[in-house]
Structures are given as structure tokens and as C-alpha cells.
Amino acid sequence: MKKALLLLALAMACAKHEENAEPQKPGNAVLLSRQQLDAQQMRVEVARERDVGTSLDAPGRISFDDQRVSHVFLPVSGRIVKLDVTPGQHVKKGDALAEIESPDAGSALSDLSKAEAAANAAARDYKRQKELY
């Protein structure tokens, strides 16, 4: 008798547990509560073919590939007056990229001219001294 009473109590406890248990969902199914459906957190529609927009707005950032970019530094300060290449154009070592106007370059050319004139004068003086000797 005690065993029958124990089995009856156990069966009643299992029945109450099954009433409170969540419904079993199959495989990859998602179950929504009535509150979620009423709040329109998700729409349920029949799958069908339809046109979609041709663009997608998404946050992003455009940047250069650091492996394919080289930084160019000017040997003198100045102002760029002419670009010889267009942005994105492939260039090789030694290609002219731009023309710059620089007071530093002007003084360097002036110094070069003075040095050449002094070298020519020294060469003439050496030749004259050699003839006199």
C-alpha cells in the first residue's frame, strides 16, 4: 500500500512538472511569445520571390592598403606647380611625379653655376701656370 501511494505521488509530481515545462521546439525552430509578435519584433510572412533594392547602406571605412602605398618626400621645400602623374597611376623608380618651385632649389642651382665657373677658372689658371713653367 505504501508503494502504491508513493507511485501515485510521484506520478502527480511528474504531471505537474510537465504542465510547467516549456514546449519542445524542433531542430532549428525559433519560438516567439505572443508579446514579441504583438510588439512586431519579428514579422512572419510566406517566402516568395520579390525585387530588392540595388544598394545597401552599411557603416564602413575606406583606407589604403599599406602594402601597396609608398610615401614620397620632397628633397627641398617648395610649392608643387605641376603634377606629371594622376592619382592611382602606377609609376616606376625614377619617374618624374611633379614639378616644384623652390627657393632652395634656385639657390642650389646658383651655387652649382658658381662652382662650375670657379672650376673652369681654376682649370684655365692651371693650364696657364703649366705653360709658364
Annotation, overall tally of beta strands: 2
Sequence stretches where pLDDT stays below 50 over 5 or more residues: 16-20
Give me the side-by-side strand order of the main sheet: 1-2
Give the % helix.
40-55%
Number of helices: 3
Identify the overall geometry.
rod-shaped
Which strand-content bin applies to the residues? 5-15%
**Measured distance between first and last alpha carbons:** 147 Å
Instruction: Give the radius of gyration.
Output: 44 Å
- The topology string of helices and strands comes to HHEEH
Structural class, please? mainly alpha
Whole-number mean pLDDT: 78
Q: Biggest β-sheet, characterized?
A: 2 strands, antiparallel
Describe this structure in words.
The protein has helices spanning 2-20, 34-38, 103-132, and strands at residues 79-83, 98-101. The chain has a domain at 71-132. The protein is mainly alpha-helical and 133 residues long. It contains 3 helices and 2 strands, in the order ααββα. It is 41% helix and 7% strand. 0% of the residues are buried. It has a two-stranded antiparallel ribbon with strand order 1-2.
SSE topology:
Blueprint: H1 2-20, H2 34-38, E1 79-83, E2 98-101, H3 103-132
Antiparallel strand pairs: 1-2
